[in-house]
Design a protein that fits this description.
Pfam families: SnoaL_2 (PF12680). This protein has 133 residues and is of the alpha+beta class. The protein is built from 4 helices and 6 strands. It has one domain: Nuclear Transport Factor 2, Chain: A (Roll). A hairpin with a 3-residue loop joins strand 3 and strand 4. The N and C termini lie far apart (52 Å).
Length: 133
């Protein structure tokens, strides 16, 4: 049975929802290129290459964000890529302020695995939440 790029990406989100980082890594190529774009200085903003760096990226997200709601809402697929529009509500650590933001995730899929990811969200909302006491 052929797995479509959308199915691969939906499996990634399902693994993320379960907290299954090993499952996430298994859905990525060994040389995965993972980039989170943002205008503020957070440890998980930037480019991370390879599975070990991706493992570190997920650890940094868990260290600095308490994700309370995470909703992939719309999937737009091509032959080897998927764009996802979504939304999240997260408590910033430290600061404990809560932010809500829409986000955009871009995935490139090669041989049934994610080879490239680019994510974007409202980092200004994150910055305001991090300043709250």
């Amino acid at each position: 049975m052929t797995t479509t790029p959308t199915q691969v990406v939906q499996s990634m989100y399902a693994a993320f929802g379960r907290g299954d980082v090993e499952g996430l890594l298994g859905l990525c190529t060994n040389d995965v290129d993972w980039t989170m774009l943002g205008s503020i200085d957070l440890p998980y903003i930037g480019q991370f290459q390879g599975q070990q760096a991706l493992l570190r990226w997920f650890g940094l997200v868990a260290e600095f964000d308490d994700i309370q709601a995470f909703e992939p809402r719309e999937f737009f697929a091509g032959a080897d890529h998927v764009t996802v529009l979504g939304w999240e509500r997260t408590r910033a650590k430290p600061g404990q302020g809560v932010f809500e933001t829409p986000w955009v995730h871009l995935f490139s899929v090669r041989d049934g695995k994610v080879a490239r990811f680019v994510g974007m969200y409202d980092t200004a909302a994150v910055e305001v939440a991090r300043r709250k006491a």
